[in-house]
Amino acid sequence: MGGVDGGGWAGNAQQGMIDQSRAAPLQGGAAQNPLSLGVQNDPDAGDQELQIDWDTWRNTLMQAIQTATVAKINVHNDINFVWDPQKQMMMSRYPNGISTWYSLDVLPDRRIVNIRLVSSSRYQGFDQAVMQSIGELQGNSILSYPPRSRRRIVTQQSCVSTAPLTQTQQFRFGDVERQR
To answer: 8-28 burial, b if ≥16 CB within 10 A, otherwise e?
Structure first.
């Protein structure tokens, strides 16, 4: 309970909402089933502050995978982009609305094991970018468990998706060049 303005706020750390106010090239998602996560055997389940730390940890992990995937697929080359003569611009080979679902386990020594492709996007390059992004996190400090955690393994299942639709932006620069 708490609040900046003195008002009470009661929240559930296991639920969240995606900010829909701005378009993003990728969207992430996570699946949590209390039975599959082994909540009844979770040594950290009784510590609410630690649960908030775990939410932050999981979000950081998913965002790191998503950010690395974006960097891999947004390389402007003939591998990831093709010329669209109708639109007169380079377009991504990966269409809107595709998703790659993955599952992985993280050990307390910052090792990622049991990396699995749960559901393919049907675009090998996109799937590979996601899997490479996961592999590159091996040993990274973001994999360090929150202090006080007694967990022996953490399973995360999530996805990386392209945006449901493309939105182009038109900028107004307001400048004028005059020739003499």
So the answer is: eeeeeeeeeeeeeeeeeebbb
Question: Is the residue at 85 inside a domain?
Answer: yes
Handedness of CA 33, 37, 43, 49 (dihedral sign): negative
Residue 146 lies in a domain: yes
Are 161 and 62 spatial neighbours (Cβ–Cβ below 8 Å)?
A: no
Report yes or no: 82 and 90 within 8 Å, Cβ to Cβ. Answer: yes
In tens, the pLDDT along 60-73 reads: 999 999 999 988 88
Q: In this predicted model, what pLDDT tens digit does every residue of 36-50 receive, in sequence order?
A: 444 567 888 888 888
84 found inside a domain: yes
What does the pLDDT read at residue 152?
A: 94
Number of structural domains, the chain? 1
Residue span of the structural domain in which 112 resides: 26-162
Asked whether residue 30 is assigned to any structural domain, the reply reads yes
End-to-end CA distance of the chain: 68
What is the reported pTM? Answer: 0.67
